[in-house]
Amino acid sequence: MDFYTFKIGVMEATGLDRDALHIYVGISVYLLSLLLFRSMIKNYSFRSFIALVLVTSVALLGEYLDNRQTINELGVSGLGNAELKESIHDIVNTCLWPYVIFALSKWTKIFHSTTKAKPMIKRQRTMDY
User: Fold this and answer.
1) Tell me, what DSSP letter sits at residue 39?
2) Cα atoms in the 13 Å half-sphere on the side-chain side of 14
3) Which of 96, 108, 106, 125 is nearest to 43 (CA)?
4) CA trace torsion 12, 15, 20, 23 (10° rounding)
5) How large is the greatest C-alpha to C-alpha distance in the chain, in angstroms?
6) b or e along 92-128 (b: 16 or more beta carbons within 10 Å of the residue's beta carbon)?
7) What is the pLDDT of residues 23-34, one digit of tens each?
8) Which pTM was predicted?
C-alpha cells in the first residue's frame, strides 16, 4: 500500500479533510513526543524543542511521501508551482499549532502555575502553632 492510499483511507475512516488531518497529526506528534520523552529529558525547554524537530521532520517526510513519484522520476525540479504551494501549505498546517504552543510556553506564563506551592516543612510548622 502506498502512502497516498493510506492517507485517503485515514481521511475516509476519520471523516476529516486533508487540512484538518495535517493539523491533528502535528498536534498529536508534538504532545505525544512531549509525553514520551518526559522520563528521558527532564528539561522541558529542551524536550519541547526536540518535539518541534520531530513535528517538522514528520511534516517534511509526509510531503516527500506525497510527492515521491514525481521526485523519483523528475527530481525536485519536476515539482510544479501548484505542487510546491500545496506542500508548503501542508507543512504550515502540520507545524503551525505546535510552534504556537511552543512559543506560548517558552515566552509567556500562560501555562505556568498561578499559585506557588509551599514546601511541606513550612506547612507543618504553621499547622503546629
Assistant:
1) T
2) 15
3) 106
4) -80
5) 80
6) ebbbeebeebbeebeeeeeeeeeeeeeeeeeeeeeee
7) 999 999 999 999
8) 0.81
